[in-house]
Amino acid sequence: MKTKSIFALVMALFFITLSGFDALAGKKKISFTVSEPDAKIFVNSELAGTGSAELTVESDQCIRVKVEKTGYLTENIEFCNFKDSGPIPKDYRVVLLKDDAYDASVPLDIVNQDIEVKTMKTELEAWKLISQIVTNHMDVVEVTDRETGYLRTAWEMDYFTRNTIRTRVIIKLSSTDPLSYKVKLISEESGKPQTSVKNDEYFTEYNRVLKKYKDIITEMQSRLAN
Description:
The chain has helices at residues 2-19, 21-25, 100-103, 123-137, 216-225; strands spanning 28-34, 40-43, 46-50, 52-57, 62-68, 75-80, 91-94, 105-107, 114-118, 141-145, 150-153, 156-159, 164-176, 179-189, 204-205, 208-210. The protein has 226 residues and is of the alpha+beta class. The chain has five helices and 16 strands. The strands form four sheets. Strands 9, 10, 11, 12, 13, 14 and 15 form a seven-stranded antiparallel β-sheet that branches. Residues 12-24 have low confidence and may be disordered. It has two domains: 2-98, Immunoglobulin-like; 103-225, Alpha-D-Glucose-1,6-Bisphosphate, Chain A, domain 4.
């Protein structure tokens, strides 16, 4: 009986130790939730769940959590499990905020490409109309040369919470007979707030256009055709 009792005590201590191993090893678990139930949760670049996920932070390690949903600002959070990194919360909730740049823009399949605009008007009539349409939408024309049929606006800068959008129009004479022009509406984003117009290295093509510029090409097509 004594031997059985000792064996039972040893086994009990073993299971207690085993069940508490995570705590002894310093492993931490987080119940992670997002305000948007269809938001994607990535842990160290791998999809961990949608809307919610159980996260594990091993001892002496960090995990990088990214939460994203179209139309909302992406959130990046890092959890580190070191002795001097402070306590890790058992529950963590992220409230996603609306992406104001997304709300202020629309998708446009003719953005960032040359669109040919034909006209039956004379060269003088067409150039006057083009210049009028451009200046109605854009503040500054950087280069204009009627003889070569070239026009380029300065960058129009628009700043958002976590993004900077810059927009410009470039027009080139395509053909004199029949008269036609290539119009390019350029939209770029930096993915950072308050980016300087001079920091070209931060900007990449944006497949959306701010709503205030979206009708430039269609207006030009319509009015030059009449």
